[in-house]
Design brief:
Rossmann fold, alpha/beta, binds nicotinamide-adenine-dinucleotide
Length: 324
């Protein structure tokens, strides 16, 4: 199948565009809580309508294929969430389970089958992969037109250049929660903690696209708190519970905490909420902030992918376009 990711939107689809800012009301002493769940619910409502219209028009419900190599407990929890979200909006979720004792070639062969399957509109690969399976090899085997989480180099390149392509959903969610909450990004000093290919780096590029003045910090950054105290907007995606404490924040800062850390029975963010709450003007809760938005946004990408693929298939079948 030809890979034309250029036809996919870099900004989220109509379902997201129609979702309004939804936050809890601030009190004098408390920061504003930037809640993701109500925004996600609005996006899902729009998606249910859009996928029903898609099915009506094209005669099938698109499939999201989730590739799981080896069993991994955190993946299992995430998988149940995404499969539930698929069911809610009228998408068929297909779990493709591959044992961990396979070769990299065998994983790529499974992905190529999904690339060639016209029922499958989008493919995501659950991380982490077993150590003997090179991530880059697996990513390269995904058709960029079905790469709805924006991990293929083609989509990453399109993002870097500011062109249309699929965006990594978590990075997009971390920026979208600011925009949907009416928080101005243009001209602000924005600091991103984390430079992974799936969150920190793409979030930084998206914030730059929104005209923020962006600084990226990482594990080798010297004097992290000196950087974070400069931030008017701080995005934290480090995977370290409580890394950012109140004394590292500037008064009135807006904080987006992407971190999800399982500590005992509790889910904690990368920001120490208790010490941050007296300093910041707005903050995303964990859980209930960026997390719920991510799946909803991912399915807006699936809708865009399915629509582009169905339209290409229709154009191919149209009279007068055949070579013979
Ligand atoms: P990762 O481990 O790939 O990257 C972590 C980044 O943080 C690295 O760039 C590293 O340099 C930086 N870092 C680590 N320790 C640091 C320190 N002490 N100071 C400064 N920088 C430091 O992780 P990831 O995949 O980018 O995920 C980050 C976090 O976001 C994790 O907690 C993950 O669970 C969470 N996450 C949430 C969602 C969601 O839907 N909300 C989705 C994906 C990831």
């Amino acid at each position: 199948m030809s890979a034309d990711a250029r036809s996919a939107p870099h900004s989220i689809g109509s379902a997201v565009a129609s979702a309004s800012s939804t936050t809890s009301s601030p009190s004098a002493a408390e920061p504003r809580l930037l809640a993701g769940s109500p925004i996600a619910a609005e996006i899902r409502a729009g998606l249910s309508r859009d996928f029903a219209a898609f099915k009506e028009r094209h005669g099938y419900a698109p499939t999201l294929a989730i590739v799981l190599v080896g069993a991994d407990a955190p993946s299992a929890v995430y998988l149940q969430q995404i499969l539930r979200t698929c069911a809610k909006v009228g998408v068929l979720g297909r779990l493709v389970e591959i044992g961990s004792d396979v070769t990299p070639d065998a994983v790529c062969t499974e992905i190529e089958k999904l690339n060639d399957d016209p029922a499958v509109a989008g493919i995501i690969v659950q991380m982490p992969l077993p150590a003997h399976i090179p991530l880059a090899t697996v990513i390269d085997s995904i058709d960029p037109a079905k790469d709805i989480d924006g991990i293929h180099p083609r989509n990453a390149g399109l993002l870097a250049l500011g062109y249309d392509g699929f965006l990594p959903a978590t990075a997009q969610a971390s920026v979208e929660i600011l925009k949907r909450s009416g928080i101005e990004i243009a001209g602000k000093r924005v600091v991103v903690v984390g430079r992974s290919n799936v969150v920190g780096k793409p979030a930084s590029l998206l914030l730059l696209r929104e005209h923020g003045t962006v600084t990226i910090c990482h594990s080798k950054t010297r004097d992290l708190s000196r950087q974070t105290r400069e931030a008017e907007i701080l995005i934290v995606a480090a995977g370290k519970a409580g890394l950012i404490t109140g004394d590292m924040l500037s008064p009135g800062a807006v904080v987006v905490d992407v971190g999800i850390n399982v500590v005992g029975d509790t889910l904690l963010g990368d920001v120490d909420f208790e010490s941050a709450r007296g300093v910041v003007s707005a903050i995303t809760p964990v859980p209930g902030g960026v997390g719920p938005l991510t799946n909803a946004i991912l399915l807006t990408h699936l809708l865009a992918a399915a629509t582009a693929q169905a339209e290409r298939a229709t154009a191919k079948r149209a009279p007068g376009t055949r070579d013979d």
